[in-house]
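Hey, resending since the last one bounced:
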Amino acid sequence: MAWQGGGGEPPYGFYPNQQYYGGQGGQGNPQPGFNPNYPPNSGYPPQGGYPPQGGYPPGGYPQGSYPPGGYPQSGYVGGGSGYPPSGGYGGDEEAKGFEFNDASIRRGFIRKVYAILMVQLSVSLAFICLCVFHTGTKNFLRGHRELFWVALAVLFVTMIAMACCESVRRTPPTNFIFLGLFTLAQSFMLGTLTSAVPPDTVMLAVGATALVCLALTIFALQTKFDFTVLNGFLFVALILFMLFGIVAMFWHGRIIHLVYASIGALLFSVYLIYDTQLMMGGNHKLSISPEEYIFAALNLYMDIVNIFIYILTIITAARDD
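The structure tokens again:
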């Protein structure tokens, strides 16, 4: 028995004899033998398959990659290309993170340089005290002047090797061996020089050098003036100072010794500030690589040694009658 009601579809689930009145609005003749289980002309799923034509969401999924344009090809570098998207993850915080990493490397480099420098100065001070206060050592040095020239030769060889050969000053343990030999040679020479000077004069020069170097280091760390722009001027001044030293060798006198020592102390004081800012890096025009910790320690050590020698010369010349 077919559904004989009015227009529209038969009640849900009422398909007697598996028949259905086709046509629009339920009108038309029954179609015996049609067994669709669902209303004709629609099918289940609907014509075009499930989901409907166009897919879901409307318009279908994008044909390209997801997200549009695809994921960045480069790695996570932040700020530019790569993941996260342009602008970086965290924006300014990430940029500050990279700056913090660079600053951390520089701080570690500075700590290493000053640790090496303190060891060098301690060795030199020990040699000076031994040669000044121990009578046996003092007499031994006076009887063996040739040791001074041996130490001078070792000093020049090791200094030139570290200054000119990058592999020597960057490759451990070779760099530490050369720096150790250089420090021992320089300390022995300082001991030999101070053995002929009264102990109170030597200690006064040591104290004055310590105060001057501490004050200059603090000044270099906080001043806004960039001394690294003076590299050309300092080089020319050093050449002129060396020429003046050659003249002073043949023109003896108390006044010329005072002038020469004063200029030397002033010049190497500026060099100490220059080398300190060179080591600091940051916003200065020039900076030294964190791999050059041996070279940086060598520069600072030589500046302090020269300041000590010239201060000692000034005090000695001032005390002469």
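The first helix runs from residue 92 to 133.

Sorry for the duplicate.
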